[in-house]
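User: Predict the complex with iron/sulfur cluster.
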Amino acid sequence: MRVLARLDAAFNALYGWRWNPLYHSGALVVTCFAVLLATGLYLLLFYRTGAPYASVAAIDAQWWGGRWIRGLHRYVSDLALLAAVVHGFRMFAQRRSWGPRALAWVSGVVLLGIFFVCGWTGYVMVWDAHGQLLAAEGARLLDALPVFSEPLGRAFTGEEPLPGAFFFMNLFAHIALPIGIALFLWVHVSRLARVQLLPPRRLLWGTVGLFAVVAVLWPPPLGPEADLLRLPATVPTDWAYGFWLTASRGVAAGWVWAAGGAMALAALLVPVLTKPRAASAPPPSWVNPRYCTGCEQCYEDCPYEAISMVPRDDGREGTVGLVDPAKCVSCGVCAGSCAPMGVGPPGRTGRDQLAQVKEFLAGASLGPGDMVVVGCWYGATGSTEVAGARVFPIGCVGNLHTSVIEYLVRAGIGGVLVAACPPRDCQSREGVKWFHERMHNGREAELQERVDRGRIRVAYAAAGEARVLRDALAGFRAHVRLLEAAPGEHDFNVGAECEVEETAT
Ligand code: HEM
Ligand code: SF4
Ligand code: SF4
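Assistant: Here is the predicted structure with iron/sulfur cluster placed in the model:
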């Protein structure tokens, strides 16, 4: 999706791809959740359901602590919602929303809903004019449902003071909902291997520090105390949790429910609506027991825990890999993991890739000085014409069997530029990470020692970063020219290349 590609490229230019917050939006929500728990516990020490507004005002009067902690709690709750929407949108735009990922999708929608309701109850706790507005609107909406025998709205007419039980129930909900968040988060990531729950340290502490500084310098104002006899006509509302108030207040409750319900239903149905037709859906991977030696590498590497090792039933000793099609998203990472090329989605195994590269070379008449870009479909090569080089497309560089690179180099071409997506943006979650390990750190199915590494380079270029790819190619071409002029003097700089890996994990 073009918007996403442009945004990613802009953020990469600003932060560098290692710390691009868009790539870590899910992990940033988890960071926010942790900060909310910590700051919330502090606020809870001083909050009184018997005197909600006065207790928040007392917290606000603690200029050394309570004021900025309340500010941090509020700002981070806004960030959590924003980051969750960005993260969900990324998953949608990258089509990571159907098949085995449906569980993560649906639980993500539920998580977003819980975050929203939790924030709602949080604002009501303050019991200022904004909280009053949220509470009264909530009561009006709930009264439209056949749930309560007595209309809740009556409590907000001002005829009688609000019962203390209201604030107690609201506080109870505000504390219980995070338990629901923790439970659904567990479900959310339950099908993923090695989940990255937190962003890289620099991004984590940078974000928390930045929001803390903002909370110290610009603590959120405390609005006027709620007054049931005077429901204010206009109240400054929070953009994240109160954005809908203006639209909803003038509309019958039934319509608000209908609109909200339709949006929730549409979001929940995304896995069904985005599922490709059977004919175009990428088929799951499978293991060919004839080639499988039982090394367990695909079982280790699969980012979706879709492979298990089972006893062989073909008369040979040991175990053999077995793919569970219900868990396999067809990312193809296993194809790059298997030295004997015994596993992968049909048509994308190491063996298939070798056959394809042979065909590619046969039809290309390439020689010394010519460049081949082995490019990921989802990255810059998928969206760009690469001038001055032939492109050998590969699903994701995580699929790439290192023997394909070896084959290209041994065929005598000038250089092989592997164009990968930035590691944390890998469509297959861990494809780029494992590719890097095979190239530089001897992970099983590694690039063999005998291959001339001076002829190989890896560039990280996201879909909107055609320029990055072009520059990398130009730099590499210059390097290859030097190589051809004086072979042996310009060796591959393993150290510089390996630096990337620090943040690839
Ligand atoms: C609201 C709180 C949310 C949190 C804390 C959260 C967190 C996470 C985390 C940590 C991951 C794993 C990232 C990785 O290691 O690769 C993940 C994956 C995922 N999330 Fe969320 N998420 C949230 C909301 C959502 C929403 C709203 C959606 C979409 C509606 C969503 C859809 C997904 C999907 C589909 C995956 C799996 C990606 C894949 O299989 O490749 N999440 N989430
Ligand atoms: S990586 Fe290949 S050889 Fe090793 S267990 Fe998987 S299929 Fe078998
Ligand atoms: S294609 Fe391979 S690595 Fe990817 S989910 Fe399926 S079994 Fe796992």
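The pocket of iron/sulfur cluster (ligand 2) is lined by residues 287, 292-298, 321, 337-338, 340, 342-343 (CB under 6 Å).
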